[in-house]
Amino acid sequence: MKPVTLTTDRLLLRPFEPSDVPAVHTACQDPAIPRWTAVPTPYGLDDAERFVGTAVPEGWRNDTAYTFAVATRDGGTLVGSMGLVRLDRLRTVERQAELGYWTAKEHRGRGYTAEAAGAVVRWAFRELGVERMEWLAEAGNEGSWAVARKVGFRREGTLRAKLVHGGIRRDLWIGSLLPSDLPREPAPAGCATAPAQDPTPYLPHPR
């Protein structure tokens, strides 16, 4: 699929560009990101270059992951990454995809991630024909769940020892979002800034 660009009141969700490499590298130095996501640790500049220059465009080209750079419309500052993964299930009777994201530490607590997530899931339901959106995060990732809950996800339970992270089996929380869970219209401008619980970042992060 050819990459697309989405907009919200405050954000531009666009393809990653080579100029994003330094910001991605800097963001992933935050210990919370490798703790809760699948990014390599330590995270080097070459990892950022592979993510921006190889993993993201290949995901779009091969229809395996649609990953957006989340940037502010006012100034173009990179806020984080938002994407749809496990798209192989989209082409089956399951009609499913999974939402993943991480947010740079200095941009958490402003509602940016929920605002971006709302735009991506609406696009996925409307344009891609997704019928069920899943969210998964390691058990204990309260920040990620706060964002998912605000978007409308309903938690369905815990998958015991589902994830292997750092050589250790860990439990996963799972939630789902259906088109009928969304309001007819997006929330009014400004509502996305309410909670101060923007995420501890969330898996996965394509490599």
Automatic annotation (TrEMBL):
Residues 185-207 are annotated as: Disordered. Residues 11-179 form the N-acetyltransferase domain. Keywords: Acyltransferase, Transferase. It comes from the Bacteria. Transmembrane segments: none annotated. Belongs to the acetyltransferase family. RimJ subfamily. This is GNAT family N-acetyltransferase.
